[in-house]
Automatic annotation (TrEMBL):
Alphabetized InterPro entries for the sequence: Papain-like_cys_pep_sf (IPR038765), Transglutaminase-like (IPR002931)
UniProt-listed SMART domains: TGc
Protein name: Transglutaminase-like domain-containing protein
Species this chain originates from: bioreactor metagenome
Transglutaminase-like domain mapped to chain residues: 170-229
Length: 839
């Protein structure tokens, strides 16, 4: 069954469930709204709902308030939600599809302003006004395609940090990562009344990355599109075949949801639904959890984990029932299962390869046990996805994309973006605070420069004393939050006069903040001012609040760059903050430290990379939390063993129970993983070997291709690499960047690396871009306008119909292929270097 048919299969179920949902949803909504209102300190934050006279509008805004994360209540004015609801309600009568959209879908997939974890803004009215004239007379399917073309006029893919920009910021900047592109596109579709949701694979199984895209509803069916990446038809995208290899794909639906999809988790704000079956073959997994004697274990936490970024990431978490059974629906590839209850846990690798898998996990380990667990992880195999499209449709779409590129480029040339805000700040820094202004600017991320307004930066500059020089007092950035003007506000809270240079009093005040993670399960950062107004926050926002208070009142503070625990500086030492709340108990008891000594004897790579080759996790409340090694405060970076642990391989860490996970991705797709569980004891050094497993027999001749004489002329005799790619699309950008990262290694190898583009325009664009990079002389760029080289190579490799893009081939001049890989795959550069070292 193909993807489109699977998407259509849910439509009848949705209509059947609509009546049942609405028979109870109003009473549930009222109860949830009242409960949240009673939770917060400043209940006037909800008063905007009471002022609305129109019943339909009032109920719509009440729904938003009942299920929005805590920060949305205090960090945005209520008029934002009233305006968004008005626009949404207007589309019920102003569009062709509005009258036929079920209320059930409207409430969950049109009305909500929030898509995922982005910053919010007033884009809905603006987008509605700009798009509606373009959609006049179109069907819903045509409108979805047209909205995506409009989005492409504004935004293309560009990697960035984890903080998700608002739709307006993404529009203004003209670029965004896939999470931002999909938020923008969903926002645009909802602005014109088309039900839409972001679909997310949080971890690919076959490569270290993730991806987000969009599903939109038209005439009783969900269709998928690549956000800001228009194709000639719906249900077409570059990731279609990659999605067949995924182990999990999900979407977050705000509100109490009761649709036909499997609900992975229902939180106080959203339901996480499983849409994997829409894209890939799945297995219905039923695991029995037992103790070491074979007795079933009810109430055990069971995690279904995907290997990615050198950790086994818990994609699904559930609780075993009274029979000790835990169930999941996931793709057909290897999965690591962790289960724990009390002080016992167990691990097992499962390999779903058909419709149903029955297995058992035994709680036979005790937290604190030291042991090694090795496994070979094989990701799902790639399936085929067919969509009938004519050459004329493809050509027409290419012409439109080129026109849209021109529109976007012209708009960006004529738009200053956020630079006037930054320049105004630079110009208004007084001479006596030049050093403070420089530290503020140095603390900003690339994204901060693109969306931080003048008034935010000025608030920090004005409210810092002239003599201050410590960046841990001056910096407005703490973690992954949107920058806000919190200093002036916090200086005027009740009791502020007791907080100056007084971290103990600040700890006492922060302890009065009630921690309620369930009302902000995504840990979307609440502004420090918002935390004070609410009197309640998730633990991460509470920690940000502590650091902000410290910095406001002259105390150097930070989130620890490895553990993210809040700390303040006293007598040149970092002291962990102590709050009188139960969730802070681990921090209070973690002042005992030991040393981790990682020893690495070489082999696979010279200097293993964090999140590429290994991770270190600490057990906290029976869960494995990966330590975050950062190269800059607030933003995680991929660091190496030497840069984190130093030449001696040692690092001071809190005493406790730890896990070292390492993995080697092989050319055939499997990952050789190793987990070592160990303890760090107070005042002692724990020596742990970092071992990257190898398979010496991994490479073999896979196929034979014809080698054109022009390749021999360029590369000489011996091995070479062919990279067939497209310029400007996300997979092409990724693979080019991946390979260029290893320019020195490829230069040392000395053999030819050919980047092959489909036409001269793409070739010329790629050549121009390469001039700004330090490209080795053995990197060569050619075009293949007839497609003969690509088609003959693909046919020899067994691609009889659709050829994956990009396509990478390692072969020699006799035509013997030792490696080839098609489609989207992060880490290609490193894998190719590994292969070249074995040729």
């Amino acid at each position: 069954m193909n993807i489109m048919n699977r998407l259509q299969g849910f439509s009848a179920l949705i209509f059947l469930s609509t009546f049942l949902v609405f028979s109870c949803s109003d009473s549930v909504l009222n109860n949830d709204f009242k409960a949240k209102r009673l939770l917060v300190k400043d209940r006037d934050l909800f008063s905007v709902v009471d002022t609305i006279e129109n019943r339909e509008l009032r109920e719509a805004v009440k729904f938003l308030y009942a299920y929005m994360p805590l920060g949305d209540i205090c960090d945005y004015d209520g008029s934002l939600y009233i305006e968004a609801a008005k626009v949404a309600l207007s589309t019920k009568t102003s569009t062709e599809w509005g009258p036929s959209t079920p209320d059930y879908l409207f409430r969950h997939f049109v009305l909500p302003l929030r898509v995922n974890n982005e910053s919010l803004d007033s884009s809905r009215r603006l987008i509605n006004r700009e798009l509606m004239p373009r959609l006049k007379g179109l069907t819903a399917e045509q409108a979805i395609l047209e909205v995506n073309h409009w989005c492409h006029e504004y935004v293309i893919y560009s990697p960035s940090d984890e903080r998700t920009s608002s739709p307006l910021a993404t529009m203004r900047n003209g670029e965004g990562r896939c999470g931002e592109e999909s938020v923008f596109t969903v926002s645009a579709l909802r602005a014109v009344g088309i039900p839409a949701r972001q679909v997310y694979t949080p971890r690919w199984a076959h490569t270290d990355d993730n991806h987000a895209w969009v599903e939109a509803w038209a005439n009783g069916k969900w269709h998928y599109i690549g956000a800001c990446e228009p194709e000639p038809l719906l249900d077409m995208a570059w990731f279609s075949t990659s999605a067949t290899r995924a182990l999990l794909m999900h979407s977050r639906v705000f509100g109490k949801y009761n649709g036909p999809e499997e609900i992975i988790e229902q939180t106080e704000t959203y339901a996480e639904i499983n849409v994997t079956e829409n894209y890939a073959p799945v297995s219905r997994i039923s695991l029995t959890v037992t103790d070491s004697l074979g007795n079933s274990a009810d109430g055990a936490v069971v995690e279904f984990c995907i290997y990615n970024y050198s950790e086994f990431w818990p994609a699904l978490r559930t609780i075993s029932d009274s029979q000790g059974t835990a169930k999941a629906i996931m793709g057909r590839g290897d999965i690591l299962v962790r289960a724990y209850k009390g002080d016992m846990f167990g691990i097992v690798k499962i390999s779903p390869n058909n419709d149903l898998l029955l297995d058992t996990v035994i709680l036979d380990k005790k937290f604190g046990d030291e042991f090694i667990f090795e496994s070979d992880i094989v990701p799902p195999s790639e399936g085929s996805v067919k969509r009938e499209v004519t050459p004329e449709q493809i050509l027409h779409n290419k012409i439109r994309l080129a026109e849209e590129d021109s529109i976007r480029i012209k708009r960006l040339r004529n738009s200053p973006g956020n630079s006037p805000e930054i320049e105004r700040f630079r110009n208004e820094i007084p001479e006596n605070k030049k050093h403070i202004g420089e530290i503020i600017l140095a603390s900003l991320s690339v994204k901060d420069f693109k969306d931080t307004p003048f008034n935010v930066l000025k608030d920090h500059l004005v409210n810092i004393e002239e003599a201050t020089t410590d960046s841990y007092i001056i910096s407005p950035r703490i973690g992954r939050e949107l920058l806000t003007p919190w200093r002036g506000y916090l200086l005027n809270i009740p009791g502020a006069d007791t907080l100056k240079m007084n971290p103990k009093e600040i700890e006492r005040l922060v302890s009065s903040i009630k921690v309620e993670n369930r009302y902000n399960p995504q840990s979307i950062p609440i502004s420090p001012a918002g935390v004070w107004r609410l009197g309640v926050a998730d633990s991460y926002s509470r920690d940000l609040f502590f650091v902000a208070l410290c910095r406001t009142f002259g105390v150097a503070a930070r989130l620890n760059p490895v553990t993210s625990i809040p700390e303040y500086k006293s007598e040149e030492r970092w002291i962990k903050a102590r709050f009188s709340t139960s969730d802070n108990a681990d921090m209070i008891n973690s002042h005992r430290e030991g040393t981790l000594s990682l020893t690495y004897e070489g082999g696979v790579v010279e200097d293993p990379k964090f999140e590429t080759h290994f991770t270190v996790s600490k057990v906290e409340q029976n869960r494995f939390k990966v330590l975050s090694f950062r190269n800059r405060e607030g933003f995680e970076g991929t660091s190496s063993l030497k840069s984190v642990f130093g030449e001696d391989g040692k690092l001071s860490l809190d005493a406790g129970y730890y896990l070292l996970t390492s993995g080697t991705r092989m050319a055939d797709g499997k990952i050789l993983t190793r987990m070592q569980f160990f303890n760090i004891k107070t005042g002692k050094s724990s020596e742990v070997p970092l071992i990257l497993r190898e398979d010496k027999g991994d490479l073999r001749v896979l196929a034979n291709i014809g080698v054109d004489e022009s390749i021999v002329e360029r590369c000489g005799r011996g091995y070479f690499i062919l990279v067939f790619l497209k310029f400007g699309d996300e997979p092409g950008n990724h693979i080019f960047s991946d390979i260029v990262k290893y320019s020195k290694e490829f230069n040392d190898w000395g053999r030819g690396v050919l980047f092959i583009y489909p036409d001269s325009n793409s070739l010329n664009s790629a050549v121009r871009k390469s001039r700004d990079l330090d490209i080795p002389s053995n990197f060569m760029f050619i075009d293949d306008p007839s497609g003969e080289l690509l088609n003959s190579t693909a046919a020899s490799l067994g691609f009889s119909e659709e050829v994956p893009s990009p396509l990478v081939v390692v072969a020699d001049t006799f035509g013997r292929v030792v490696h080839f890989a098609g489609g989207y795959s992060i880490g290609t550069g490193e894998r190719l270097i590994k292969i070249t070292r074995r040729l």
